[in-house]
Design a protein that fits this description.
Helix content is 42%, strand content 13%. By secondary structure, the protein is of the alpha/beta class. The protein is elongated, with a radius of gyration of 27 Å.
Length: 467
Amino acid sequence: MTSKRIVLVGNDEETGRFFARRMKDHALEVLPSLADVDLATPPDLVVYSPADEISEEDTRLLKSLSAAALPFMVVSAVETMKAAVLAIKTGAADYFLRSEDREALGDAVIQALYPPKTVAADPSDDDDPELDDFMIGRSAKIQEVFKLIGKIAQSTVSVLLRGESGTGKELVARQIHRNSPRRAHPFVCIDCAAIPRELVENELFGHEAGAYSGAEGRATGKFDVANHGTVFLDEVSEMDLELQAKVLRVIQENVFDRVGGSRPVRVDVRILVATQADLEKQVKAGRFRADLYHRLNVITLYLPPLRERREDIPVLARHFVRKHCRSLAIPEKQLAVDFMRSLESYDWPGNVRELENLIRRGILMERGPVVSGRFLELTPGAGDGPVAAGTLAVSRVWTDRFLVEEINWRRADVHRQMTDKVERLLLKIVLKQTRGNQVTASRILGVSRNTLRVKMKELGLLSSAFK
């Protein structure tokens, strides 16, 4: 490796001895204060090791290093969350405690000095910003999906979209609509699992004045709004049998009744539906109408999970990097080769949505031009298993930052604060991941749907806020 110049600031003799041994092939300079760092002839890396809390003056100097695009790290002797958060806020590439494993510090320094190899951009990857909301993929399985979309888009028949959470069922429904003769008219998405059962009928069909207490005037429903367009019913299996009968009437007769109405309303809509449930089992169990199932099952489109089309992972990852760098108005980052290999070996229980969320977090957490994944952890799945047991974890520093910013340590109810904050954060994360789908969210959380609803009400969380 080409020799690099490192400046160690502070009187931390132990760290100095470690650097002298580990970085013996590099030019190492020790300075007493940050003010002595010469920005006119900047080093390749500054390692700041204060003996106490970071002073206000040093905070300003660290910010000047960040402004000069000079990478720096902080090695702190003070085991406080404040120090960790402050270091990251000022622009530190990384933060360590003196009591931590020195080898980890050495590895981080090497990575900062010698950025990882990145995945070369594929010139055939389409980076048109207008394609951000279109499906991407080269695998044979996803290409078959694209072909089927082309075949069925021009028709008016109902389509049943099946697949695991995060595979892109709503995205496919939107593509069918965009490529249909109805493209100039509304596309209305309704998550049947996110709307309380007692409100679903009103949401779909609207109501007449006086239909119930508080109904002072006529309200149009989603089917009114979607007239001449497309209605997408997500998690259709969550509808009760009575409402299923009313949807069947719309499909067969193109009419519906508003709540409290006495005259049928005529409507012209195409209905697309999606579900993760086994509708055949629900039909046998009497929980889903057989006649509605057969009307919806004219064409079934199955979306394969991401683990069954691994060759699409690099294409999708690069696409999401471009998409989110563009949305954040920052220069496009690159993906480290080792990180890409980790992505390709992971089983993605959350499918494409999980991949996109991971890439977005990586972009936000990596300050440099390369997304290396060092702030993210992927637990490889079981390979060929149906769903891998995987977890994503953010770095300790960012956990500390949450605790500093969210918890009032002057109060005597820190435990209660922590419980409330973490519970709220957990529900928000899961609801965001599931786009407000309460059925999927309750399954992930391991609680009943009613328990989830009660908790959401207590915390003031609305499913509609996570669409």
